[in-house]
Amino acid sequence: MKKILVSTALLAGVLSYAGGFRVSLQGVKQLAMAHTSAHAEDASVAFFNPAGMSFIPSKLSIVAGGFGASNKVTFQNLNTLQSTETDNPIGTPLYAAVAYRPIENLSVGFSFTTPFGSTIQWPSDWEGKEMVQKLELKSFYFQPMVSVKLAPWVSFGASYIYAKGKVNWDKAVTQFGGELNIKDEKASGSGYGFGFYFRPDPKLDVSIAYRSPVDMKAKKGTATFQFPSASIYPLLGLDPSTGQDKFTATLPLVEEYTIGLTYKVTPKWLISADFNYHGWERYSKLTLDFANAPVGNQADPTILVAPKNFKNSKTFRLGTQYAFTDMIFGRLGAYYDESPYSDDHFIAETPSFNTYVITGGVGFKLKQFGVDVAGGYALPQARDVRNAALGFNGQAKAEAFYFGLGLSYNPF
């Protein structure tokens, strides 16, 4: 009983914290053009490819922006025909960056982003309450970086990634009429990124970038059980006064390869395209080490290992911009994003779908200042859920939209 209780509940929540999906909201201008990356007009290029800083027109560039992300997931049990919808609050991803060129061929910069994170909230009494009732995820990437111009037409850049993360997850434990909360606020990890940025012709920009995996290490995670009777706590190796146990885990965030192109068809019209490759196969297994609870499946009974069957995924992006005047720009885009798992591994904590997204926006340039607005509407493809391991079967659908406001300042 103890192994079933923890393995079907705890593992799913920790995996969610690892980031079962990638949130592509790191630049408002970029989102309007399908979140394409080969745009070296201001410091927003820094997250996508640090090498792009060498081609920013001004010596100093500062950008900041934020998004509202609204989504709803619907699950229907095809046997009972009961349908359940999430009641998710609006997510608010943020970004900020600065780039400075102290000498002709050297640029330095810093980027702050929130590339992983969301909140999903199911009704507390829904049929999947043992998997999740509410899950809040937050991640923060801090990236100092440098770029060197190797020639007038090519640059190389690199960045160091320091990541911080938080999770707060509630689910029901119906076997004992209780609840479980998983919480960790101090997970951290590090990684790196690098890339080349090419401008072989004034009409053509080419961006090639790599962002490494980040192993988020949760060293002080707390699992808190609440049961009607405290007599259950000793059976699970929990603190008899609080119902708590500690755990540690290493939670991988995946690597990303990107190739981006921007071509200026005319002085006013440009077209951009990106290809992203995500290394989700790193989720081959997940290992948790509890302080006391003997709920594992290894020789050491406090260690629990669960196999995962994620697969690498791809994203295809196409965007365009047209300058109506020197001050007003219109933008459109569309992209297709693959889910990293199949129907038989669908999880309610981080629902993922093969998704088409349509984007658009406008930009205004007022001398050194820029204001950009963007929006996106997602069309996730319905899934036939067949997760035998969790006993979760039915049909899942979703819808989502995004909107954002970005500011830029290029003083000199």
TrEMBL record:
<keyword id="KW-1134">Transmembrane beta strand</keyword>
<keyword id="KW-0472">Membrane</keyword>
<keyword id="KW-0732">Signal</keyword>
<comment type="similarity">
    <text>Belongs to the OmpP1/FadL family.</text>
</comment>
<dbReference type="GO" id="GO:0015483">
    <property type="term" value="F:long-chain fatty acid transporting porin activity"/>
</dbReference>
<keyword id="KW-0998">Cell outer membrane</keyword>
<keyword id="KW-0812">Transmembrane</keyword>
<dbReference type="Pfam" id="PF03349">
    <property type="entry name" value="Toluene_X"/>
</dbReference>
<dbReference type="InterPro" id="IPR005017">
    <property type="entry name" value="OMPP1/FadL/TodX"/>
</dbReference>
<protein>
    <submittedName>
        <fullName>Aromatic hydrocarbon degradation protein</fullName>
    </submittedName>
</protein>
<dbReference type="GO" id="GO:0009279">
    <property type="term" value="C:cell outer membrane"/>
</dbReference>
